[in-house]
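User: Quick one: structure for sequence A, then sequence B.

Assistant: Sequence A:
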Amino acid sequence: MASINKNDNNSGKSGGKRTKERNTGSFNKRNFNENPRNSSSGREDILSSDAVYASSGAVIGRNATAELLKSGRSVDKLFVRRGDREGSINVIIAEALKRGIPVIEVDNSRLDVLSGGAHHQGVVAMAAEKEYSSVDEILEIAKSRGEVPLIVIADGIEDPHNMGALIRCAECAGAHGIIIPKRRSAGLSPVVTKSSAGAVEHMAIAKVPNLASAVDSLKEAGVWIYTAETGGTPYYECDFKVPSAIIFGSEGEGVGRLLREKSDFIVSIPLYGKVNSLNVSCAAAVILSEAARQARTRV
């Protein structure tokens, strides 16, 4: 995980090179998401009489997947058997691409795992546990509460347990929402929901096609961008009393280079033990708690 500072290097590096002015910004609405909410055609309650669901929350089989796509429910990913382009699978893939759903070709063995051994007919869809929000809606939540926005951005966090724990930390800190990318991210699966200890039900989560574009739009709306990485300002010395979005990366790769460069500040957690990293949710708990404390002691 990236949000550490083993050597306590208080460099105060800034990526975005903006001059901070103490104001909350206007939070103008912008086109942050490609598709904030897919409207239902009235079929979202029942997908199909022969729909099959794996314990992981996967929707299995061609008929069930086709009905899922027709229902308008949010779908995180569509897994199809590599090289299989016969019959109804072409229609399913075309509909998924039309809706902007990532289509991933995998070996049959991977589909066997995803389906829990059920007869998958070469296709498994991962449906979201709840509807996604838009970034505009996240900003509106902060405005409706009369609070300075506090937003979490998850970059490349693909482990569902880590994602669930991050959502839990964000909700406990009073964050107004989480932004995740369409690709290279755990979606709102049952595992994520369980790992969040129910926090996902109280957290607005936006899924965007491009995190860098979302960051640019947030900056235009008056939000300051912090990246949790090594070599930055200790978290307790950072100013979180302004509208803030904090980026947390995966434990393996950390926050991507482009997002670091677009950030206004790098924030770190000094470590004094022999282990040089924290789990992403642990790091988020530390930094978000400080951000929440400052937001509630504004002067």
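Sequence B:
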Amino acid sequence: MVRHDSLVKDYQGLYSADYEHDACGVGMVVNIHGGKSHELVDNALRVLENMEHRGAETRDKTGDGAGIMVQIPHEFILLQGIPVPEKGKYGTGLVFLPKEEKRQSEILSIMIEEIERAGLQLMHLRNVPTNSEALGAGARQVEPDMKQMFVTGVSDEDLPVFERILYKVRKKIENRIADEDFYICSLSSKNIIYKGMLTSGQLRRYFLDLSNDYFTSGLALVHSRFSTNTFPKWKLAQPFRYLCHNGEINTVRGNRGWMKARESVLSSPALGNIKDIHPILQEDMSDSASLDNVFEFLVMSGLSLPQAMAILVPESFNDKNPISEDLKAFYELLLSAKHESPL
């Protein structure tokens, strides 16, 4: 009789456990007391760098994508000579732009138009210091021009809904610009995202801001990308605006179809006319990006983070796997046609 382990040894072919890889790497570092420091940012980057094996890269060291989300480093921005107002009263975020001057000028004109239409001002555009030598050859060929935008002018009356205003402005800008090299990484009064077509070890070396001692945060999310269903692009690196996602959504085509079908009947007192921000799902993005689009929309419509996540990833329940009556009532309420939902 031939032993099973002998069969495995003799017929394993080209397989070797030494080459095993897992999907995307996700990490988080947070100060539970709310204190901000550069040490926390540095620790988060080290978490990312220790997940190098979780991200994909080509032979020329072009990364599938890596990034970090942190709180807006207010003091760091002031030290750059940018006279922003007090914390929470301005929105900022990184923008990928084409390097061609004419295309960039056309995009900036649309951005300014939509920002001013919302009663705000594009106060400043900062050239983000980067080190292109840190990139792989493939990433360098498609490297965008990198700007940091600063949006001001929110009234005290609108301050409680400033995030929602910035969301609507960003959506209107995105829906008017069909340039492959344009992408707004984030536009927020709270958080900012640094990401790109990088490996885990390249993020710190590429974005020089991240090594500045005055660049501080009390929380950080990091992500190293290993995609199985989309090719690498600068805009597909994570984190996205609300989440990092590790995995592949097998039902993504159906999910996108249902979301698109619902857009014509959606309503939200918080957001006003939904047609102004159609489509909810950004075109030519990954499954994780689509999930983030809908998650962001639900939160901006007035749901809490847990409520929005419970809707997107509902618990499976039956007689053998029961859930609480309160949670069951929550799902029934959402499905009720009589319920005046924010959706």
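Residues 52 and 200 are 5 Å apart (CA to CA). The longest strand covers residues 145-152.

User: Thanks, that's what I needed.
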